[in-house]
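Example (one chain per record):
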Amino acid sequence: MGRHWGEVDGEDHPHKEITQAIIGEAIEIQKALGHGLLEDPYKVCLAHSLRLAGHKVKREVFLDIEWRGLDPFSASLSEILRASAFQ
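Predicted structure:
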């Protein structure tokens, strides 16, 4: 069998189990619900499926990030455009 994303010559990856669970459940949900829905039903179903499988799940957690001096969560559209290449 061929190598998959994230595999490097037999190395054991610390997040391999949860990564496989997330991707597998996401594929099953996509097959069952089909395409074309808004994002939220897929997210709700994925969180539910992972909880049923025994995983701890948090949705929509706050990430305190900065990108080149810009806080993307609190910036206004004009600030984002001013900081981007679209000037």
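Caption: The mean pLDDT is 81.
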